Amino acid sequence: MHRQSPVRIWRQNGYHFLGSFCPNCQKTYFPKRGFCLKCGEGDLEDLKISNPGKLISFSVIRNAPAGFEGQAPYIVGLIELAKKIRITAQIVNVDPKKLKIGQKLVSVFRRISVADSEAVIHYGLKFEPVAT
Amino acid sequence: MEIKILGIGMTKFGELWSKSLVDLAEEAAVKAIKDAHLQLASLDAIFVGNMLSGAVTGQEHLGALIAERLNLKIPAMRIEGACASGAMAVYQGIQGIASGRFNRVLIIGVEKMTDLSSAEVNKALMGASAEDEEGVNGLTFASLYALMAKAYLEKYGLKEKDLAEVAVKNHYHASLNPLAQFPFKVTLKQVLESPMVADPLKILDCSPITDGAAALVLSRRQLTVDGGQIPVSIIGSSLVSDTLSLSARKDITEQWATKKAIQEALQMAGIKLEEIDLAEVHDCFTIAEIISLESLGFFKKGTAAKATAKGETRFDGSLPVNTSGGLKACGHPVGATGVKQIIELVLQLRGQAGKRQVKKAKIGLAQNLGGSGSTAVVHILKGENHA
Amino acid sequence: MKPLKKLKNVGIVGYGGYVPRFRIKIDEIARAWGKEDGEISRSLGISQKSVPDFDEDCVTMAVEAGKIALERAGIEPEEIGAVFVGSESHPYAVKPSSTIVADALGIGNDYFCADLEFACKAGTAGIQIIAGFLEAGLIDYGLAIGTDVAQSKKGDELEYTAGAGAAAFILGRKSREFLAQIDYFSSFSSNTPDFWRRSGVEFPSHAGRFTGEMAYFRHLEEGIKAFLEKTNQKIFDFKEIIFHMPNLKFPLKLGQRLGVKESQMRNSLIVEKIGNPYSASSLLGLCQVLDKAGKQEKILLAAYGSGAGSDIFSLRTKNLLLSKRKKGTKVEKFLNQGEFLDYSQYLRKIGYL
After folding, report:
1. CATH 3.40.47.10 domain range(s) in chain C
2. Per-residue pLDDT for B185 more than 80?
3. Taken in order A21, A23, A24, A26, is the CA torsion positive or negative?
4. A75 chain-B contacts, CB cut-off 8 A
5. Distance (Å, rounded) from C-alpha B387 to C-alpha B381?
């Protein structure tokens, strides 16, 4: 129910990895936040965290949760981007047997989920191995 | 700090189709009060540990729901910390007594999970994770722990069968526990051949979906009941928060919140780790027991699996772990687990654990985790006197 | 005959193509439908087509193509002042794909925008609209994309060629940034019901053999002949020629009729590897031509859209093309990858199982 909320889909966005940057004390945060933990400043700037990333761990999901049935098996992973910022995301375009911890990955724009034929489509970022 | 456990009660854990959430809570509560040789009227407050009631049945406001069923008009509230809700409710109950406000409180951990399909429950359970980042991308709890498992196995050069030993041991314990969901043994082969859920974790590496309730009656030290059970004391109680999301965790092959919680609990109890005779530890997945044991300090990093295979954590080993059967084989009604862990320790410390009795059990430890390690709650219990 | 104005301020400053990595052999589809081995592939002249992953659609492919175009253009996405995505498989009937693509590419809020549909020429229509904005000096850069997950009824003859892909073009008006300059464009339009899809209906319908002479061939032949006359050019002036490719036979036959040599068309024939990605067909052909062309070469691009119309462009490559195109992935890289599926796996990818 909550995953279908068009407002939530819009607010979450997720088309970019957006962090916050404090112009006052130069600290970077991810994900976005309202106030700097170091100096208390509230005027934080948006900062896009860049790709590519490094694969920290991954797993192939065979038992999918509701909303993702029919997609299994799919790969999920923990990926480390610039500035040691980590995120969890799906990994596509690769045979899991060929995936190795430490591998370089880059983000791709894909459908994340669609609740039903009337719902707003949730798009976002997944990852694929960097072309060698 | 000394809090006494006057009474314990729990339902069988399993697929209890004909029992609703409040039926389960009622059964555990009444059993606990009887075990304490008290009346419901002697209670001052109710603390309910539960995670999924809203997601599964649409019912919130569980304090009032259960107070109504027990016909009590006393302070009643629900406490939620994902899979640590049960131990968190104990933690809050202790605060209520230690503050001087309450004398005797009832703790009920309860969960009703089987009303929904497993795909729906898996989705609801992601409420224990960083939903916006992990749930939204189609992760499940099995996959979160699988990410830890894969990194752990690679780091220490271990294999899937090293994890499987945990399931074999816990099923063996459950075969000696009549209230367990799966009171039967499994072999290593069966675990390794069970269908893959999120690699490297297979079905028999994962705790099941379970209905159940577990309750405790806690009291201030001076107010134990004459003619009642041998009281067991809670001598340490700690709760530590780590990051919610796995991606913000410093090291995914350890449980930092657990590491900090055990230090605080030991300090509060005034004892050393070596004095602990047995432990109930959070094995939501086999990897979780391994990592938890290491983070608690019982084993050096990378060695808990081999110790398990050697039998060191069997009920007759040097450090019995999860004699109840653990979450894997006793079952994991999410909000009830933390309370059940304490009940198992009480039975052991009273000498009432039957075929799975640990000899000379004096001090026990319970570790309950919320989410992928975001909340850790540790309790240390001490038995009064028993042979 | 209305004379054609020569454009002064319109050029391609960035381009990018994207094709999903799955493929299915035409013979495998034919086998599922009980046809003789080789029967269909021989008559269409192609052996395979591209298949999107289940989590891809015309929007996701458009974003991937747009990323490559931005890499080549080397501009900040916020500098783009207009976005037009053309497709016949927009995922929403109401709610533009273009704003989703613009958001994903970081284009900000300061842009003109609408979705386009004109069967397989929706992408080139976008180029024409943006060319108008640029020529008038209303924007500095514009993004036009042709993208489709081509749809067809299962077992219908269209299924053999209905592929998937996207091609994105960033156009600008500063000649020192041009990779190729657009000199002229024209269109030939009519109300011809050769291929259509009613609202709310899942698959397109077509009028069989009528889609040949009276549709594809008429609009392209007449359109190109008029274009060449109005612009005082000859077919042999063009080093590279790209026609819309519903299969391999049609563009080759058209070329023959217009006196085109096979060497002029060789670089454009992406249909051989991926089938027909509808709005991205001629534009992916143009991407591949730009990947391979030399400097100061003339290019003729002619797209056809059912319903019906043709869009014709003449372009000239500039020296900058040879260095700037290295900044993005070549179409060939996408064409040469290919994980082959059987018919049941293909049905699962496109949402049937």
Report:
1. 11-178+325-349, 184-319
2. yes
3. positive
4. none
5. 17
Burial class (CB within 10 angstroms; exposed 0-12, middle 13-18, buried 19+) of B40: middle
Question: Which of B188, B197, B191, B182 lies closest to B328, judged by CA?
Answer: B182
Sketch the domain layout of chain A as residue ranges. Answer: 2-129
Active site residue C120: yes
Query: To the nearest whole angstrom, how far is the Cα of C272 from the nearest Cα of chain A?
Result: 23
CA–CA min distance C135, chain A (Å): 32
- Is the Cβ of B117 closer than 8 Å to some Cβ of chain A? yes
In CATH, what number is assigned to the domain containing residue B257?
A: 3.40.47.10
Check B246 against A12: CB less than 8 A apart.
no
- Long-range contacts: C234-237, Cβ < 8 Å, 24+? C235/C259, C235/C260, C235/C300, C236/C261, C237/C298
The question of whether B332 is a catalytic residue gets the answer: yes
Task: Choose among A15, A16, A110: nearest Cβ to C56.
Answer: A110
* pLDDT given at position B387: 42
Q: Are residues B217 and B314 in the same domain?
A: no
Domain boundary among B196, B223, B250: B223
| Partners of residue A101 in chain B, C-beta under 8 Å | 150-151, 154
Give pTM, 2 decimals. Answer: 0.92
* CATH superfamily name and code, C11-178+325-349: Thiolase/Chalcone synthase (3.40.47.10)
Q: Which of B171, B173, B332, B379 is catalytic?
A: B332
Same domain assignment for residues B259 and B150: yes
Token digits of residue B87: 């131990």
Closest partner residue to A57 among B137, B150, B196, by Cβ? B150
**Two tokens at B359?**
């000899």
Contacts by residues C289-293 (CB-CB < 8 Å, ≥ 24 positions apart): C289/C240, C289/C242, C290/C12, C290/C15, C290/C179, C290/C180, C290/C317, C290/C321, C290/C325, C291/C325, C291/C330, C291/C331, C291/C332, C292/C267, C293/C239, C293/C240, C293/C267, C293/C317, C293/C321
Average pLDDT for C213-233: 96
Q: B249: nearest CA in chain A?
A: A86
| C184-319: CATH superfamily | Thiolase/Chalcone synthase (3.40.47.10)
pLDDT in tens, B44-80: 999 999 999 999 989 999 999 999 999 999 999 999 9
**Which residue is catalytic, options C88, C159, C177, C240?**
C88
Show which of B173, B188, B223 is a domain's final residue: B223
Indicate yes or no: CB of C56 within 8 angstroms of CB of A13: no
Residues of C in contact with A16 (CB under 8 A): 104, 106
Record: contact A88-B139, CB cut-off 8 A: yes
Residue B121 lies in a domain: no
**Structural domains of chain B, count:** 2
Q: Which amino acid is residue C164, in one-letter code?
A: A
Cβ-Cβ contacts under 8 Å, A13 against chain C: 103
Q: Are residues B28 and B176 in the same domain?
A: no
Range of the domain at B300: 128-208+234-383
Write out the two tokens for B157: 């050069």
Out of C90, C206, C219, C244, pick the active-site residue: C244
Question: Is the Cβ pair C60, A110 closer than 8 Å?
Answer: yes
Q: Which residues of C touch A109 (CB under 8 A)?
A: 60, 63-64, 104
Model confidence pLDDT, tens digit, residues A84-126: 999 999 999 999 999 999 999 999 999 999 988 899 999 999 9
User: Would you call A19 an interface residue with chain B, using a CB distance cutoff of 8 Å?
Assistant: no
Beta strands in chain B (DSSP E): 3-10, 45-49, 76-79, 104-111, 196-198, 201-202, 212-220, 232-241, 278-280, 363-370, 375-383
**Is C88 annotated as catalytic?**
yes
Cβ(B144)–Cβ(A96) below 8 Å: no
A·C CB contacts under 8 A: 36
Are residues B168 and B32 located together in one domain of the fold?
A: no
**Are B94 and B183 part of one and the same domain?**
no
